[in-house]
Amino acid sequence: MKCMEISQLHWKPYSRSSFVFDLQLFAGDDKTEEPTAKKRADAKKKGQVGRSTDMSAAFVLLMGFFILNMLWEHIYHKIANYTTYVFSHLNQTVDTESVVRIFIGIIELLAQTALPIMLAIMIMGLAINMYQVGMNFNTEAIEFKLDKLNPINGFGRIFSKRSLMEMLKSLMKIAIIGFFLYDFISEHLLDMPQFIYFDLPTSLAQISDIIFSMAFEVIGVIMIVGFIDYAYQKWQTTQDLKMSKQEVKDEMKQSEGDPQIKGKIKQKQRQMAMARMMQEVPKADVIVTNPTHFAVALKYEKGMVAPLVVAKGQDLVAQRIKDLARDNRVPIVENKPLARALYAAVDVGDIVPAELYQAVAEVLAYVYRLKNNRRRRA
C-alpha cells in the first residue's frame, strides 16, 4: 500500500493552473501610462483636445435666447415700425432713391435688432471654447491630406469605436430632447387655438412666452448633456493619449538626451579639460607631491592674491603631471600633508586658501632659493 501511495504521489499530474501565465505582464506595447506634459502639449498643437460641441452649443443658445428675451419688446417695436413705414410708402414711385432708402433702412434695422444678439453669441462662443481648450489656434485639422481620401481609412473612421459612441450619444440626445419637447408641447397644445381671438400684440406676447419657456427648458437639458459630454471627451482624450512604458522612456531620452550620448559628451569634456590642465603644468612654479598618490601644480606671479592651483591629479594623473614637470624642468617637492590638503581643498583654477598660506609660502621660498643657487652657479 505504501508503494502504491508513493507511486501515485510520484505520478500525480500537475494541476493545469500552475501553467497559466499572465501574458499581459510581458506586453511592452500596452498603453498603460498617463500621457506626459509633452505628449499633451503636442496633441494640443494638433487640435487633439477634449472639448464638447454640445457644451458650446448649449451656452451659445442660452446667450442667444437670453439676449433675445431681454430685447424682445425693443425688437418687436423696431420691426413693427419699419414694416409700417414700408407699407405706408408703397404708393410712391419705385426709383433708385427709394430702393436705396429701403435697403439702408433694412441694414439699420438689422444693426439695431440682430447685431447685439450676434455679438453676444460670438463672445459667448469664444469664451466657452477658451474655457475648454484655452488659447489654441491651429489649422492642422483643416489642412488637406491625401490620406483623408483613402477609402480604407475613411471606413475605419466611420466604423471606429469613437464613431459608434458619437452615434449613440446623438441618438440619446435626440431621444432626451424629443421627450422634453413632446412633454412641453402636449402641455400647451390646448392653449394655442384661443390665440386667434386675441389681437396681434397679445398673441405674439403669449406665443413668445411659450417659445422662450420651451427654449430655456430644452437648453437646460442640452447643458446637462454638454457637461456630461465634456467630462467624457476629456476622459476619452486622455485614454487616446496614453503611452506605453517604452514610449515614456523614448520621450525621456529625447527630452533629456540619450544616456550613452551624454556619457560620451561628458567623457569628451573631461578629456578636453585634462588636456587644458596638462598644458598648464610646464608653466607651474612647483609640483607638490606625496610622492606617489597625489600631485598638485602651483603657480605664483606678481600681483596675484595667492598662489594658484593650475593642475592636480591622483595616481596615474599625478604620475603624468610629474613626468611633464620633469620634462619641462619644473621643481617637484615632496610634502605629503600639504599635497593631500591641497588636493582635497582646492579645485583647479582656484587660489590657495588662507590656512595653507604658510606651508605653500615655505615651499615656494625653497623653490626660489634653488633657482637662485642655479643662476649663481651658471
Task: Please indicate the count of domains.
Answer: 2
pLDDT < 50 runs, ≥5 residues: 1-28
Number of E strands: 4
Structural class, from secondary structure content?
A: mainly alpha
Order of helices and strands: HHHHHHHHHHEEEHEHH
Number of DSSP helices?
13
Helix content: 55-70%
How are the SSEs placed, and which strands pair?
Layout: H1 2-11, H2 37-45, H3 53-70, H4 72-88, H5 96-133, H6 151-158, H7 161-188, H8 200-241, H9 245-256, H10 259-280, E1 286-289, E2 294-299, E3 308-314, H11 316-327, E4 332-334, H12 336-345, H13 357-377
Parallel strand pairs: 1-4
Antiparallel strand pairs: 1-2, 2-3
Helix pairs in contact: 3-5, 3-8, 4-5, 7-8
List keywords for this structure.
disordered N terminus; 65% helix; name from scop; mainly alpha; 378 residues; 2 domains; four-stranded mixed beta sheet; elongated
Structure, explained:
- The protein is mostly helical and 378 residues long.
- The protein has two domains: 45-137 and 151-242, no CATH class; 270-376, name from scop.
- Helix content is 65%, strand content 5%.
- The protein is built from 13 helices and four strands.
- It has helices at residues 2-11, 37-45, 53-70, 72-88, 96-133, 151-158, 161-188, 200-241, 245-256, 259-280, 316-327, 336-345, 357-377; strands spanning 286-289, 294-299, 308-314, 332-334.
- Strands 3-2-1-4 form a four-stranded mixed β-sheet, with helices on both faces.
- A hairpin with a 4-residue loop joins strand 1 (286-289) and strand 2 (294-299).
- Helix 3 packs across helix 5 (96-133) and helix 3 runs antiparallel to helix 8 (200-241).
- It is elongated, with a radius of gyration of 44 Å.
- The termini are far apart.
- Residues 1-28 have low confidence and may be disordered.
- The chain crosses the membrane at residues 55-72, 102-128, 171-190, 210-232.
- One of its GO terms (cellular component) is plasma membrane.
- Required for formation of the rod structure in the basal body of the flagellar apparatus. Together with FliI and FliH, may constitute the export apparatus of flagellin.
- It comes from Selenomonas ruminantium.
- Belongs to the type III secretion exporter family.
